[in-house]
Write a structure and sequence with these properties.
Helix content: under 10%
Strand content: over 45%
Distance between the termini: 19 Å
Number of strands: 15
Largest sheet: 11 strands, antiparallel
Length: about 180
């Protein structure tokens, strides 16, 4: 279970929400070593609604000689909640195969498949693909196509450090290069 406070701001206005993620993982499913099943529910929480001086408008009421400030109503938006079910199989320490089904309230459903090669738990090479499910039954295209990545993990003064790199060709915005730095105590 994870609780999170989400804060978003634009000039002179902000929105805040409280949300929860929870999940469960079964290892060695049906007594098959290396087979795992997971279920996660993400971003279950309150709606986001902007407030602040940025949503005020100056107006004069009928019959008045001065302007007053009135709050302009803003939309109350749901968080992008999702339900994810995953299955993974790790036949050896070197290889991991995985598949995840994602259902979201803000976009179409996805089936994501991937693999990871693990080199002595220090270096990793990854590949994956996200299939967009059209109408929930047929495999369709993907915004990203084939995604490739690599990562390293090491300790520095008893602190776990991970550095991951992902390359994904995106149809609408061009190719993306993502770098993630993880620090664990």
């Amino acid at each position: 279970l994870t609780a999170k406070l989400i804060y978003e701001s634009v000039p002179r206005a902000s929105a805040t929400s409280l949300a929860f993620d929870f999940g469960i993982k079964y290892k060695d499913l049906i007594e098959i070593e290396g087979l795992s099943l997971g279920l996660a529910v993400r971003n279950i929480g309150t709606n986001m609604e902007y407030t602040g001086t940025g949503v005020l408008v100056s107006a004069r009421q009928v019959g008045e000689t001065f302007n007053d400030y009135f709050s302009h109503p803003t939309s109350s938006d749901q968080l992008p909640a999702s339900l994810e079910m995953g299955l993974s199989f790790k036949p050896t320490d070197l290889l991991l195969l995985s598949a995840v089904y994602q259902n979201s309230n803000t976009e179409t459903d996805y089936l994501r498949i991937g693999t990871e090669l693990n080199f002595a738990n220090v270096g990793f090479v990854r590949a994956g693909y996200a299939f967009q499910l059209d109408g929930g039954s047929e495999l369709g295209g993907s915004v990203y196509g084939l995604t490739l990545g690599a990562g390293v993990k090491f300790q520095l003064n008893q602190t776990n450090i991970t550095v991951d790199y992902v390359y994904r060709p995106a149809q609408l915005l061009g190719n993306e290069n993502l770098i993630c730095l993880g620090i664990g105590l």
